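From the methods appendix. Each design record in this collection lists the tokenized structure first, followed by the designed amino acid sequence. Records were kept in a plain field format so they could be parsed without special tools. The example shown here is representative of the layout used throughout.

RECORD:
FOLD TOKENS (136 positions):
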């Protein structure tokens, strides 16, 4: 892109087209969109798309109707993520409360486990009693 832009500049393209349509791509504009890599990060509200990602590529297209629609959809996606996280937080807090409230339930479970393993031992002794080889 940069070579093609430089070639057009050398061929005498008008300055207005060069500044508005074929803008220079700066190294800081080539970063990966954080919306894709870190969609739950803090501070997304101040993000602006680089000019070549915008619908019409114009410098002021942040005000463009298509871009307004893009940002509106993006905002709705962020709001949905926020709502899911709020719901998840509520569920985890309730689960933590339920775990603490049902702590005495661990003792009966452990007692049932002890009884089950004792039953396994008894059954194994009965089944293998006549098959055991006692070495003295």
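DESIGN:
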């Amino acid at each position: 892109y940069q070579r093609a832009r430089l070639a057009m500049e050398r061929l005498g393209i008008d300055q207005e087209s060069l500044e508005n349509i074929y803008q220079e791509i700066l190294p800081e504009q080539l970063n990966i969109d954080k919306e894709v890599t870190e969609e739950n990060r803090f501070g997304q509200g101040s993000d602006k798309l680089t000019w070549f990602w915008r619908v019409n590529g114009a410098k002021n297209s942040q005000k463009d109707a298509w871009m307004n629609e893009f940002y509106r959809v993006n905002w709705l996606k962020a709001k949905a993520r926020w709502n899911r996280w709020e719901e998840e937080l509520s569920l985890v807090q309730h689960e933590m409360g339920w775990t603490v409230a049902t702590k005495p339930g661990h003792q009966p479970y452990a007692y049932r486990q002890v009884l089950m393993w004792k039953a396994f031992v008894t059954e194994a002794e009965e089944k293998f009693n006549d098959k055991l080889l006692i070495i003295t």
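APPENDIX NOTE: Residues 65-101 form the longest helix (37 residues).
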